Amino acid sequence: MSQYYTYVTATGRIYSRGYSENPQFKAVFNPELTVVEGFADAKSQYFDLVEGILKDKTELSLTIDKTTLTADGTDSVNISGIPVGTIYWQSDVTFVVDDGSLIFTTDVANTYLLEFHSIEHFDVEVTLVAT
């Protein structure tokens, strides 16, 4: 029995892994996946589409100018060093970062959890406090 993993063909994100006599059956059910014989850990690895190999994720090093701000709609937190293509998620807001930075403002006092998801890096959570 062979061990296999699948990755999303368009992105390189590890999707699943398992054992099978014939792992190619997975591709029949989902043509958006590529099947590779071997082992992969979705939490710590990704498939590099350029080099065509499995790689370990690395730490995502963000630059954050502060973690508290005034909830006046003007004060802001600047976050940079975000790899292009990283998915930003906060509450019900999700978008893909396309320029490497994010400016966060709010007029509602609250504690905000911002999540950054990048295929090549470990996920990062940032907590901001608006008063």
Sum this structure up briefly.
With about 130 residues, this protein is mainly beta. It has 2 domains: about 1-55, no CATH class; about 65-130, Immunoglobulin-like, CATH 2.60.40.10.
How is the secondary structure organized here?
Elements: E1 2-8, E2 14-20, H1 25-29, E3 33-37, E4 45-48, E5 53-56, E6 63-64, E7 68-69, E8 77-80, E9 87-90, E10 93-96, E11 101-104, E12 110-117, E13 124-130
Parallel strand pairs: 7-13
Antiparallel strand pairs: 1-2, 1-3, 4-5, 6-8, 8-11, 9-10, 9-12, 12-13
Using brief descriptors, characterize the structure shown.
13 strands; Immunoglobulin-like; mainly beta; 5-stranded mixed beta sheet; 1 helix; 3-stranded antiparallel beta sheet; 131 residues; 2 domains
CATH superfamily of the largest domain: Immunoglobulins
**SSE order, as H and E?**
EEHEEEEEEEEEEE
The tally of structural domains comes to 2
| Uncertain regions spanning at least 5 consecutive residues | none
CATH architecture of the largest domain: Sandwich
**Could you report the average pLDDT, rounded to the nearest whole number?**
92
Radius of gyration (CA) equals: 19 Å
Question: Which secondary-structure class do the elements indicate?
Answer: mainly beta
CATH topology of the largest domain: Immunoglobulin-like
> What is the strand tally?
13
Output the number of helix runs: 1
Largest sheet: 5 strands, mixed
| Residues in helix, % | under 10%
Please give the order of strands in the largest beta sheet.
7-13-12-9-10
